[in-house]
Design goal:
This protein has 384 residues and is an alpha/beta fold. It folds into two domains: 201 residues, Aspartate Aminotransferase, domain 2 (3-Layer(aba) Sandwich); 90 residues, Aspartate Aminotransferase, domain 1 (Alpha-Beta Complex). The chain contains 13 helices and twelve strands. The strands form three sheets. The chain has a seven-stranded mixed sheet with strand order 2-8-7-6-5-3-4, with helices on both faces. Strands 9-12-11 form a three-stranded antiparallel sheet, covered by helices on one side.
Amino acid sequence: MKMDERGDGLDRRVFLGAAAGALAWGCGREAVRDSGAAPAAATAGSGAGTAARPAQIRIGQNENPYGPSPAALAAVRDAVAETYRYTDFEGELLAKIAARHGVTAEHVILGTGSYGVLIAAVAAVVERGTETIVPHPVYAAVERHAKTLGPVARVSLDRALRHDLDATAAAIRPATRLVYVCNPNNPTGTVVPSADLRAFCRRHAERVTIIVDEAYAEYVPDFSSMDALVRDGAPILVTRTFSKLYGLAGLRIGYAIAPPKLAAAVRSARGVDDLCWVSRAGTRAAIASLDDGSYVASIQREVGRERARLVSALERHGLTVPAPAANFVFFKHRRPEAVKAALAARGVLISAHDPSGGCRISIGLPSDMSAAIEALGAVLPSLA
């Protein structure tokens, strides 16, 4: 084996070339052929190019089964040969995110998915003994961590399973420091009308800090973000992630935007340097993802078509489904855990939310959804 010029063993170029080739093989799925074509499916399991699908259909974690865009995969392949270096692309990513939302880099906080930013925001805002308000049901991260600092008040969703903003406003007390909104909401998939949410934020953001979690925003064509309020200086924090539509869940990268003073507080609670919280490959993949609008549109179309098919199937069984806007469908059921178990016995893995009395099914590949619809037809009549 050739020694490198320093004489310390394996030639770095040979080693990294082999590593790059291995990743290219693993990531080398068929790309989207054009903006009107369906994206190629990610292979089930690890997301790498394994030869066979596992027996189980995993449609309970809101993953994008088509995986990252071809541009993002190419960026990862380019980055693999540089994995011995620390990232130096965080500045470029900050600038691109800032331009996307019409803010400055000082407004942007990077994190390990939006989860990392949400937890840092709780730490920055909630003083020990003060209160947090969350909707119910909702993504649990904020509630779980806020409970370590003080009481958490739950506000039930309205009849359409959307955030009840009037009830939330009525729940705000002098001790309240943080209000959490997830839009589209997880697990129900519902969206609050943008005018209503904007009015709520303008009315109450001076009293409390408001987090608006927009993790699933990219699934909604022409989504109306609350980022304009951040540009206006309102003390709200808007979070986004590359884990959902962009398919980078395994690379753990997300961000938030907030007015500079609030952003600095969250950044301080998280840890000052952005480069400590993002990987080189993840940063490069995120940069490439933001430029690939055709892939976003193709995923929106694919998910929208399969989501409508699933909703129709559930409604044929007499189930009420709230209007879904993200890459999952929620339905009420008196025995959600039994539905989950019965489907799992048939190899279909979904999510059950016993406290909320419902099930959540993520949108998978067309073949996944056909299998799920067939399994639902077999188990739902016996569990009615």
